[in-house]
Amino acid sequence: MAAPLVLPGCAGGQSALDPAGREAAEVYDLFVVMVIGGGVIWLAVIGLLVHACRRRRRTWSEEGAGRLIAWGGVAFPVVALFALLAYAVWLMPSIRPWLDRSVPEPAMIDVTGEQFWWRIRYPAEDGMAAFETANELRLPVGERVAFSLRAADVIHSFWIPSLGGKMDMIPGRTNVLSLLPTKTGVYQAPCAEFCGASHAYMAFSVIVMDTKAYDDWRRRQAAGNRPGGSEGERLFAHHGCAGCHSVRGVTPVAGLGPDLTRFSDRRTVGAGALANTPENVARFIRNPSAIKPGATMPAFDMLSQGDIAAIAEFLTGRP
Amino acid sequence: MRLLPKEVESLWTLFTGPTIWAVHFLVCYVAVAIYCEKARTGPFTFAEMRLALVLVTLLALAGIVLSAWLAWRQWGFGSGDPPHDAPTREDRLLFQGFATLLLSGLSFVAVLFVAVPLVLIEACQP
């Protein structure tokens, strides 16, 4: 009876039980098979327990009991475990299509975990230039994408529950993961390896789009921001924001902190910490550590409210 | 003290199955690990190594079946029912035979479980 109330919790943009990619679907199938298998075995064992506890019992003959133990306690577990093991091992290559090395490394999307955000580099493709972005991944539906995964400081882990994974990001190593999104939508990806004080606030959005929208987005991203000469744009450079954050087309390349080019397209501020609104951007600028403990960006609470609001307006494109 | 006893009545036979299982596991694990590390320079292919390990597996299974048959014989081909817990020489022999038989069964299944990935995994992870 509780199932209809509880089961909706399994859906959503960050659930391995609501797959939107081929690898996640395989994991889901494995999960369903294991749950059903486990459930049937559990019911059988409980059935035997009830049978053993029944009131009026007729004693089993020693031979009958021995047969039950030999079949139910030896033969059945051996065969069932063998089948489940074989199924799981057989699925492995499709859950982790690491054998597919047809994509050369430079053509992969490069994702680097840093405390506590994600540096994302798209390669040049089909005449579109390479570019860097942060904390938001956009993917074309129905196309296999390969990621090269790195870490800049400590171990992080790359996991998009709806699409597949996870794969650790280890400093000094490049791990490769390949995914095939099958449904358009917006998904959430948390860092899946404890990486410090703001581990819980380290997430990125994944937006799976149809190919045309994806190509348009790539073109826009590669082109960067258009200089508008706004007050916020001037203050962004004047107060030193541009020393760490690039806004391509407007400021020189910095590369220390998250790239903020076309920030207005993003869904969140601070790698999934807050929704992307001018108020939240202002809050973040004023004191990043209040939102993300341990964040490397210093507090800019010495700036006037007006300056912070202007910078937030420049970034979000909204007053 | 002799390392190998004169008579069959020894605990050594009890460990035959598990020992074969352990050796088989080690051979498979080490062979695949070394092969994958040196895959590019190795003189044989993954398929050849897998075939060799399948042969090792068959050999291990044959060894375990042999040990099980010897144990079955020691147990008197199931002529008496367990538990053989009387403090007599005969019961000790029968008990050991029965225990060896069970351990052989366990080892047989364990060797099969170890071999499953060999059949289904296709190549080394880069």
TrEMBL record, chain A:
Cross-referenced SUPFAM superfamilies: Cupredoxins, Cytochrome c
Subcellular location per the Swiss-Prot or TrEMBL entry: Membrane
Residue ranges annotated for the Cytochrome c domain, each copy included: 227-319
Domain Cytochrome oxidase subunit II copper A binding as annotated: residue spans: 104-220
Segments crossing the lipid bilayer: 31-53, 65-92
Reactions catalysed, as given in the entry: 4 Fe(II)-[cytochrome c] + O2 + 8 H(+)(in) = 4 Fe(III)-[cytochrome c] + 2 H2O + 4 H(+)(out)
Family: Belongs to the cytochrome c oxidase subunit 2 family.
Name of protein: Cytochrome aa3 subunit 2
TrEMBL record, chain B:
Taxonomy, superkingdom: Bacteria
The entry's keywords: Membrane, Transmembrane, Transmembrane helix
Residues annotated as transmembrane: 20-39, 51-72, 92-121
Record's protein name: Uncharacterized protein
Organism: Mycoplana azooxidifex
